[in-house]
Amino acid sequence: MSQEQDQPPQDPPLRAIKSFVTRAGRMGTGQIKALAELGPRFVLPYKPERIDAEAVFGRKAPLVLEIGFGMGGATAEIAATLPDHDFIGCEVHEPGVGALLKLIDEKQLTNIRIVQHDAVEVLRDMIGPDLLAGVHIFFPDPWHKKRHNKRRLIQPEFIANLVKHLAPGGYLHCATDWQPYAEQMLEVLSAEPQLHNTAAGYADKPAYRPLTKFEARGLRLGHGVWDLVFRRRA
Q: Which residues, listed in sequence order, are joined to residue 89 by a DSSP beta bridge?
């Protein structure tokens, strides 16, 4: 067998347009300390090679990928609520990584690992096919201006590649508080032949997704939040 045949199949290259802008953020002393002390254990370096999840977590468990966890509050709460699941969180902003590491320590969580890198490349290079029990994409940047809509993460090409990494029956859960983006998400996800909607349109918020302070404030002011939960066809 040739060397090329030995290599795992790779997804085709995705669009070069980034769905995020890397911003410089201030790091608190607690975040700096968490990065130094906990980073070596909980932060996985980006490598163009497939993750062995059982080796990383020391067990076999359903694996969920979260794309863009922000400051990590929801991630930590979900991981604490679902201790029988393992979670890999992708976030490019270092303050968010430090904040989640602090929460991992405070809550004594062992079922989270972090990759500080572009999630599109992590998914393509590090996550094997049919591996994921679920994917969480909560409140991605809506890129409000029409000329910036092309930067939105949820696009047909991205979803077509993401689906390959979901196990049959695995779920994709997206949430947004920007109605035009919710409409785009529903259109894109509904058009992907390997996915089916678990609801007649938008879904009720699953119990495992915590209500953030920002979200609760918006709801009190009459703002909407839209959840979408799709599953890969078996």
A: 66, 114
Question: For 5-59, how does the pLDDT look when each residue is reduced to its tens digit (9 = 90+)?
Answer: 445 555 555 445 554 445 556 788 989 999 999 999 999 999 999 999 999 999 9
The DSSP-derived string for 153-222 is: S--HHHHHHHHTTEEEEEEEEEEES-HHHHHHHHHHHHH-TTEEESSSSSBPPPTTS---HHHHHHHHTT
For range 96-112, the mean pLDDT: 97
141 is catalytic: yes
CATH number for the domain that contains residue 77: 3.40.50.150
Q: What is the mean pLDDT of residues 166-183?
A: 96
**139 carries a ligand binding annotation:** no
What whole-number percentage of the chain has pLDDT above 90? Answer: 78
Q: Is 212 annotated as a binding residue?
A: yes
Structural domain includes residue 111: yes
Residue 15 domain flag: no
Give the pLDDT score at 110. 98
Name the β-bridge partners of 189.
Answer: none
DSSP per position, 16-56: S--S------PPPHHHHHHHHHHHHHHBPPP-SS---HHHH
84 known ligand binder: no
Catalytic residue among 11, 141, 204, 227: 141
91 is in an annotated binding site: yes
Domain membership flag for residue 186 = yes
